[in-house]
Amino acid sequence: MRAVIVGTGYVGLVTGTCFAEMGIDVICVDIDENKIENLNKGISPIYEPGLDELIEKNVAKGRLKFSTNLSECIEEADVIFSAVGTPPDEDGSADLKYVLDVAKQIGQNMNHYCLVVTKSTVPVGTAQKVKQVIQEELDKRGKNIDFDIASNPEFLKEGNAVSDFLSPDRIVVGLESEKAEEIMNRLYKPFTLNGHNVIYMDVPSAEMTKYAANAMLAVRISFMNEMANLCEKVGANVNMVRRGIGSDPRIGNKFLYSGIGYGGSCFPKDVKALYKTGLENGIELKLVKAAEERNNEQKLVLFNKLKAIYPDLTGKTIAIWGLSFKPETDDMREAPSLYILNALSKQGCKIRVYDPIAMEETKRRLINLDLEYCQDEYEVVENADALLLLTEWKEFRLPKWDRVKEKMNKLILLDGRNIYDGNEMRALGFYYEGIGTK
Prior knowledge:
Elements: E1 2-6, H1 10-21, E2 25-29, H2 33-40, H3 51-61, E3 64-67, H4 70-74, E4 79-82, H5 97-109, E5 114-118, H6 126-141, E6 147-151, H7 161-166, E7 171-175, H8 178-187, H9 189-192, E8 198-202, H10 203-234, H11 238-246, H12 267-280, H13 286-298, H14 301-309, E9 317-321, H15 336-346, E10 350-354, H16 359-365, E11 371-373, E12 386-389, H17 401-407, E13 412-415, H18 422-427, E14 431-433
Parallel strand pairs: 1-2, 1-4, 2-3, 4-5, 5-6, 7-8, 9-10, 9-12, 10-11, 12-13, 13-14
Helix pairs in contact: 1-3, 5-6, 10-12, 10-13, 12-13
C-alpha cells in the first residue's frame, strides 16, 4: 500500500513516520522546500521523543520519503491523507484554506481511484467540502474518476505522540463506502493485529468526535481550575479534592489537575472552532465558552499571585522554570508562559528563563522581549526575588534546593503546576504558593 501524507507538521510527520514503521510505503509532502531538504537529511522540524530515530530508520529502509511535488506523488497513491494546518480565523472558526487547496490539487492531478482522508482537525462538514472541490476540478478536466473521502482524526498527545500512534487507545474512522472501509482496514491491519480497536462511523460523526473530545478535556481542566481558585478562598486543598472525586469511576482521575491553564496547538483553537460551529448552527455552547474564558483568566493567576507579594515589580529579578506549554515538547503555541512573560515585561522586571528544550522557540516568538536565557535550573535563579514554576519538566521535580537557596535573593516559590509539597517547601524556608493548595 502506498500512502501520501500532505503536510509535515506535527500531525503529518508523526502519522507518516509511524505508518512507515508499520511497513507502509509513505511519501510526506510539503511546500516548504527547506523543511523537506532537512527531513531528507534526517533533521526533524519538531521535537518529539522517539521521532527522529524512527525517521532515520524508515528513510534508510526506503519506506519513508519526502517531497515537495504533490502532483507526482498522487500518481502512485492508494490513499492520500490531508494533514495541513487549520489555524483559527479572526472570528475563531477554523481556517480551511490549506485543506481546500490540497483538495484542489488532488482534483487537478488525480488519474485513478484514490481514498482522500482528512487527518487535520476540521469542523463538521469539511469532508463534504473537500469532496465538492475535488469533483469540481475533475469536472473542469472532463474526467470521470471515482474517489472516496474519509475522516480519520488524530488523538495524539504532544510529548507522547509516537507511542500514542503506535499503541492507540482508539482509532476513529468516518466513511461513506465499503471500498473506503476496505482500504482503511488494510491500512490499520497492523494495529488491529495488536488488539487496537478501530471505530467506524459516518464522516460527520468522526469530525465531531475530535472536537467533542478536546472540548470535554478542556472543560475538565477549566472546572478543576475553578475549584482550585475556590479552594484557596475556603481553605481547602484541591489536591485532596482531586483524589476524592477522581476515585469515583463515573468521573475518573484523568485531567483533574489544576494549574495555570492549557495551551498547545489543539485545545485553544479547537474550543474556539467548536463554539463557532455551534453559533453557526443556532446553538450557543455555554459550557465550551466558559471553559475558554476560565482558561484565559487562569494563565495569569501566577502573575497575580506575584503582584500580591510585590505590588511594585519594577527592577525585581524573576526566575522562570519551564516555557513550553507542557513537558517533552518545544511547542509554545498558546503557552501560559507567553502571557506571564509579557505581563512581567510590562512591569519592568528583570526576567531570567530556563527550559530544557523550548528556549529557541521562545526566542523566535518573543523577539521583542528582553529575556535572559540561562543554561540550567540553577543559573536561572541567581539573585532572583522569586521563582515561578511554569512547566513540570522532570528535572524540576527534585532539584538541589540548597543550591537554589544559596543563589536566590528572596526565597519565594510560586508553583504553577502543584508539583511540590507546600509544607516541605516552607520547612526549607521558602514562601510557597501553589494553585488551590495550602
